[in-house]
């Protein structure tokens, strides 16, 4: 039996064009599966659960919002609604604002009706080789994060991140 017959079929059963189409679909599916799942597999093997503490600075908010955040409790990521930990502590200080005086110079002054809040959150995180996540939410210093509690919704930047002692391997 020949490889290709007179009608262009492989072993007399499948058209060569059909075979090429099937190979392209299988290769594309394999490439997609590797791109979607393959890179994460190595990081997941090395991941472990560990307590973390991170501080989020929330700039220039009203004192009433700071009071609502100080009621503490659990906090959730704003977009997805997943739990990201518990508020441990809230500190506040007068917010700096920049204004222009009559001479056209920039002046840094304290805003009388705005505060900067430093919200410390404790959580259990998955610590991988290249990433730290809390319930799938990536936490890194400098990352913007939107949080909501029972009492308030606020957005800030992570300014500190500490891995606490303990944890379990996964």
Q: What gross morphology would you assign? A: elongated
Determine Rg (CA atoms, Å).
Answer: 27 Å
**Uncertain residue segments:** none
Strands of the largest sheet, in order across it? Answer: 3-6-5-4-9-10
Structural class: alpha+beta
SSE pattern, N- to C-terminal: EEHEHEEEEEEEE
Strand portion:
over 45%
Major beta sheet summary: 6 strands, antiparallel, barrel
Number of helix segments?
Answer: 2
Span of the ends, CA to CA: 55 Å
Helical residues, percent = 10-25%
Q: How many structural domains does the protein architecture include?
A: 2
Using DSSP, what is the number of strands?
11
Mean pLDDT: 87
Characterization of this structure:
The chain has 2 domains: 9-45; 47-169. The protein is α+β, with helices and mostly antiparallel strands and 170 residues long. It is elongated and about 90 Å long. The chain has 2 helices and 11 strands; from the N terminus they run ββαβαββββββββ. Strand 9 (144-148) and strand 10 form a beta hairpin.
Quick tags:
single chain; 170 residues; alpha+beta; 2 domains; six-stranded antiparallel beta barrel; two-stranded antiparallel ribbon; 2 helices; 11 strands; elongated
SSE diagram, text form:
Layout: E1 9-10, E2 14-15, H1 16-46, E3 48-61, H2 63-69, E4 73-77, E5 83-100, E6 106-127, E7 132-134, E8 137-138, E9 144-148, E10 153-163, E11 168-169
Antiparallel strand pairs: 1-2, 3-6, 3-10, 3-11, 4-5, 4-9, 5-6, 6-7, 7-8, 9-10
Write a concise synopsis of the structure shown.
By secondary structure, the chain is an alpha+beta fold.
